[in-house]
Amino acid sequence: MNKTRWVRHGWRCSGESVMSEVSAQSVLAHLFQMGKVPKKKRSVADKVRKAKTSFEIKNNPFEVKINRKKFDVLGRKSKHDVGLPGVSRSKANNKRKETLLKEYKQKGRSSKFIDKRFGEYDTQMAPEDKILKRFALERQRVHDKKDLYNLNEDEELTHYGQSLAEMEKFNDAVDSDDESEEKGLLSAELTASHFGGGGLLRKKTGGQQDGEETHRAKSRQELIDELIQKSKQEKRERQVRKEESQELTEKLDQEWKSIQALLVKKTPKCDRAEEEKPKLEQYDMMVRELVFDMKAQPSEKLKTPEELAREEREKLQKLESDRLRRMMGEEVEESSQSQSHISADDLHDGFILDKDDEKTLSYQDGKWNIEEEADKDKTEEDDEEEGHSGEVEDGDAGEEEEEEEEDDNADEEGRRRRRRGSRRPAMMKKMVTLTWSPSKKATTEERKETSAQPSLSKEEIKAQQEAAKAELPYTFTAPESYSDLKDLLQGHTPDNQRLIVARTQKSNHASLAVGNKLKLQKMFGFLLEYIGELATRSPPELVAVDKLIPELYSMCQMFPEAACKAMQSIFEDAGHTMEEVLEVKGHVPFPALDMLVYLKVTGLLFPTSDFRHPVTTPALLYISQALTKCPVRSLQDVTSGLVLCCLGVEYVTFSKRFLPELINFLAGTLHLAVKDKTSLGYTVVPPFRPTGKCSDLLVLSDSESCASWTKKSLPLSATRHLELRSERDRDHHRLTCVSTCLDLVKRCCLLYKDLPSFTCIFRPIRTLLSEHLSAQTLPELLQELRGEILESIGGAAVTRCRLVLEKKKPIPLKLLTPKIVEVLDYGKKRGCNREEREKERLKHKYKKEFKGALREIRKDTRFLAREKLTEVMDRDSERKRKVRELFGSLATQEGEWKALKRMKSK
Amino acid sequence: MLTCDTVHVSFILYVILQSEKEKDVVNAVNACSKLFSTLLEKKDLFLGKLPTGEEEEAFIGLSAEEKYRLFMRQRYSSCVEMLLEHLDHELYSVKESALCCLMKFAEGEGRHPLEDLDWSEHYSFPRELLQGVVDRLLSRTTENSMLISRFQEFLEMEDVRYYVMSSIRENVGKVLAKNKGVGEPFMFNNVFSLMSNISIPSQESGLTNFMIKQEGESCLLSEHKRAFEKMWLGFLKYKLPSNMYKKILVILHDSILPHMSKPTLMIDFLTAAYDVGGAISLLALNGLFVLIHQHNLDYPDFYKKLYNLLEPSVFHVKYRARFFHLANLFLSSSHLPLYLVAAFAKRLARLALTAPPTALLIVLPFICNLIRRHPSCRVLVHKPKSVEDPYLMEEEDPAQCRALESSLWEIKTLQSHYHPDVAKAAGSINTPLSGLEDDISELLEKTTYELMERDLKQTRKTVPLEFETATQLLKGGGDVLGQHFCLG
Q: What are the Basic residues biased-composition ranges (chain A) (predicted)?
């Protein structure tokens, strides 16, 4: 009830005129009413609240105001869900009373009481603390003031009841700044007894003094001086005494030490320490030395042959998997380099040391192959000298060379084995251990196994090579042009040509000089050109080409990019000329032998199984173009076509890709061998024609020649010119072609038997073989082949996979649920950078503070107004009371007077 | 004085014209041209028909002036004869100058006719002279394509062209009738190159360039067209060698049919050509298309024949691009029956097994487009049930070939084609086709070399290498080559 009235008053007072009026009155009224008013003002609510404990208040529903929440946010704790307006209001009220009200009361007064007692208004301080602090302050003040003349007045500091000064005396160290302590004799009592209190002494500093007083002061001054002198003297004496005693104790100590050595046998502690010092240093030094000493590095574990084999196999498996990945058309990064081993010192210039270096230390049947190592070392040295200086006389370089070659072969053989072995792991391991045991025994075994090795005896080769070596220099400058290379190689035997190229390569190795890399890259191009020329010569020098293949391969491994470029340019030229001729004439002659050689070399240098390869894809296209656009007009053309077919089969052997032109050509070739072309059950594909000239190229002129025919491989030069004098030779050649063709067909059958349209693809060949070629008399070998092919075509299970579209991922319906985005800063968009944010924050804070201050000021004014009003009302009621009193007294007076009068009248 | 000189000069020229030296002849021809054109302009030549019989007889009873004229006229005609003979000269320069000279005479004669002007304007053109020129051009013994291309300059003129057309018709009719329809290849070539050079403006207003001012029929476009039509039909009715057929069919739709007054007259020729088979049929398609499309030709069994044109050779012939362009047009209709489209798709797919990569790059998008246009054809690529291939390759009727019951396993096969682009294109049938059709017009003219270039030009950072060490030429790659061939 009370509260509301207060508020109403407050509202009424908020007007400005009212305020000023009230304040004017209240200032006057304040003089005599100030003491009582606050006590009276305490509202009933306050009283109640004071009486109750906070617990009661909090549980009282009339006291609690619950702030309604707009949203209930899970997991958020709000501080302000419950308010106690009564409590907070009374708190604020009290505070105002203590501060504002007091100020108000003091307003307009010149004098005021300031309570400067320490912590009087500090409510936080406990009363005990307050008292203690006050006491301390008091003491401090007293001390400060006395300090000037206080000589030794300080009370003694104690520790556990003992004087600290006493305790100090036991210390050996002498404090020089004990002076102030030593003044102590001149105590306050003493001075007081002498001069009648310190108060006077203090006053003496003041300005006005009488003559008497100065006189007395002088005498006193003298006294004081005397006193001081005395005390100083005493102090000096004491000091001297102290020093003496110290000296004595030190002396005693010295003496004791000398005696102690005699008393106890043990070496005195200090001496031992002195002796030990250098020792320690030595030890430290040693420790340090050991710390910085080179530690034994952990060496690589010696690898057993099994481990080596495993590594090799892993490497090959990786290469194989790379190849497969490329075949599937996936892109591969830098993983496909076939460099076997990259040492830490590798400069990435393609320099690979000889194969021999690759061999690491290994054990063979528990024995260390040390002799082998020694051998290798020797040969390596030779190699080096041969490569760089060329000063060495005819040594065993040839032997070494040959050995190396053998090694290569062995390696090669082993690798191939292993590659196959990776598909048949059971067989693999045995092979690997066999091929990779580096002992001589194993290699010889290996050599026996490989029948393809040259059958020349070792001595012969040696002799031959030595003879060659006698003529050849050891270093060659890299050829600058194609003609240079030709001059270099002209007139040498194929073996020597290879040697020359190898030596040129070695003496111009990329690591030896800056420009060498470029030179060798150029040389690769020249070498390719040279090979082409060798192939075009008549008769073609294919043996020389064959010998140069390993060199080409190694150079290609060194410079893949350059090799790729060179090959590409060859195919570009060839493709371009072919295209031009095609446009003019409509057909082209079969590619010459050099192109066939290039195609073969491409297959040797680059992987043919890649899904897309910068060299082999164009090469395949070239083969396909040649097989479709080159009309077959002679037996040479047939031979060329078959070479191309062989290459085509080689290209797709691994990847099993479908090469339609190949099948077309093979079918066409078989068609050439059909005698009776009246009723064909198949269609031939261009460049072949069902009938016409040149369509009977492979028909035997005499069936008798079958009997005398034996299968032998054709020379590659047969693609260019054939020396077939008799009709019989001609027939034999025809039969060879047919047999080659049939063999290729067989291979194709095996390659493509998994294709869904296998039967469709081979249907023409099937009809050819079963209906047309059966009637003819073929040699037994060919009959056999024919039977095999027909069997494999017929036997191919017609298992067609169902053709089903890949399941498409269903497109999801449009969803209308809101997209939930995590909002990190609520409310208004804040500035993006830090400064702006800070500014924004300050602004906000300022606003908040401003509002708060305004509210507080309003409350203050309201409070003041309330106060003034109560003052006025109090004053009014007081006056009324007084008036009433007066009236009362007057009435009694009047009554008395009237009673008297009545009595009188009575 | 002048007359005397000209007489002498004409004699001398006549002698020189017969000379062996090329330079002399060319100069003489030029001089002739000058001399007689001036005479023509001056009308110093005898008018009317030349009297037959002996020269001396003709001079009887004439004044000196007339004698001179007649004499000059005789020189002129002999000179013209000489020039016409020179059109068969071995040397091109002589031929060329003779031709130019003759055409100049023709122009002069046209302006100042040698004959008496009849009631008909028609005769104001020197037809005989032109006939002579055309006869020589369509020589039976020599290839005159160079001269004919020179002659094309004169064919720009409307009246010349008109009279040349009729002369050609006459000449061809005459010669072939004499040889019982069998012509020499040279003549056919000459006729073809001359005829193919003739093109008629499409609008009446285009007829402006006349050699001699003309009125009458040679001014009408319809007359020109008719003459053109007659010329061609006259030529085409004879039995022609097959390469001539091809040549004609190549230009037929472009430069013959539009200039004919009744293109439908070509129907017989085209259907006959369509029935020949092979490349000629392919080429006839184009002309037929124009007739069907613009002239309302109803061709029964057109699609059946088109279906039967699909043979392995389709992918190997020179006119592959043209054929597929047209096949694309013919099959672009959405009203085609489903069985037909399926039959085409299946047959093309089957043939694709023998096609080179360039053709495959056309055929595969082509088939995909067919399936896109006719979504019901999707059973060809999506058939969870069947495992047999009931398709009959030999069946000629697309309705009977059971293509709809089959699936395109051939394309599945081609997914393992050796060329990456083809394999990728074939791979597109695995997934549902996108809505948009592939544009095959860019692929039509692609050559193998362009395909090669794509890989050759591309620069890759790393070149994968063969990791099996190469030791010998014939080794490696399964040793196929090494097994059948040896060095040496």
A: 416-427
